[in-house]
Design a protein that fits this description.
The protein is mainly beta. The protein has 3 helices and 18 strands. It folds into 2 domains: about 160 residues, no CATH class; about 110 residues, no CATH class.
């Protein structure tokens, strides 16, 4: 019995780890430059203007969809800042400027523009350039949207979930017990990113799958007094929350099993069960 429980516990850890590997979350929103960087401006003729150097402090952010372009004999990373007039009054320039980290000091305050009566003054977006070899030397951090009411902080996820054991609440004279009725099936869910920079996720998932139910004389009632033992298939649904912190994951799931063949003769037929899992992703690439 102990060996059997150990085996199912190992399956639980493996199943949760497989689940954790699939949580990637929404794409990054910004790239944050953690050190000091220097940019030049690129004019409309795609020429580098070297008369002004734009210095940025640590924490300066750029959009992740930058371009790489060869100008002369060098390759540059091209960063385009938008015309803030195109944003509209419902999204003030100062909000976007704050998110990008722009306006840190007077050397690049012109990237932000000035506000007048709640709107920005006429200011075209700037195109900045930095040598790719210098950009590659910078220490950067991917910034993700983790705001609760922002659509970009959510993502749909799917995969396969394994539930190797279940806790059955007390029923009549039967005490609270744990059963090894395995559930295997596809899940779909919504994942919310909890951190801008770290792989922390919370997923609400739902599963519809197949259960392999262990029967014995203590869990079934048979009017013909025939012994009922063995494993029968059944249908199951479940829902739960999975918390992932880096390579660790912790989940709580509840659901119902519906046994075939014996049906209502099985005492846990359509009764709510509970389960949890703790996992670690040993295959993570750091």
């Amino acid at each position: 019995m102990k060996k059997r429980l150990a085996l199912f516990s190992a399956i639980a850890l493996l199943g949760t780890s497989t689940y954790a590997q699939q949580q990637k979350g929404p794409d990054r929103e910004f790239i944050q430059i953690d050190g000091v960087a220097e940019f030049y401006e690129l004019d409309q003729e795609q020429k580098i203007l070297t008369d002004t150097v734009y210095h940025t402090d640590p924490g300066f952010r750029i959009y992740p969809h930058y371009q790489e372009k060869k100008i002369g004999n060098d390759v540059y990373v091209i960063v385009k800042y938008p015309d803030f007039n195109d944003i509209g009054r419902h999204c003030p320039a100062t909000r976007l400027a704050s998110a990008l980290g722009a306006g840190i000091n007077a050397t690049h305050v012109d990237l932000v523009g000035q506000r007048s009566n709640g709107r920005t003054t006429a200011l075209n977006g700037k195109t900045l350039a930095i040598l790719k070899e210098e950009f590659d030397k910078l220490t950067t951090t991917d910034i993700h949207n983790n705001k609760v009411f922002k659509r970009g902080s959510y993502d749909f996820t799917s995969g396969v979930m394994t539930i190797p054991f279940k806790f059955r609440p007390r029923l009549d004279t039967t005490e609270f017990t744990m059963t090894t009725d395995i559930t295997l099936g596809p899940y779909m869910g919504v994942t919310h990113r909890l951190s801008e920079t770290k792989p922390y996720f919370l997923t609400l998932a739902g599963t519809l799958g197949v259960a392999f139910i262990n029967l014995n004389d203590n869990t079934t009632s048979n009017e013909n007094n025939e012994s009922t033992t063995g494993i029968v298939p059944g249908l199951t649904w479940s829902t739960g929350l999975i918390l992932q912190l880096d390579d660790f994951s912790l989940g709580y799931v509840l659901g119902q099993d519906f046994a075939s063949e014996v049906g209502h003769d099985w005492m846990y037929h359509s009764r709510i069960w509970h389960s949890f899992a703790i996992g670690y992703n040993f295959l993570s690439k750091k």
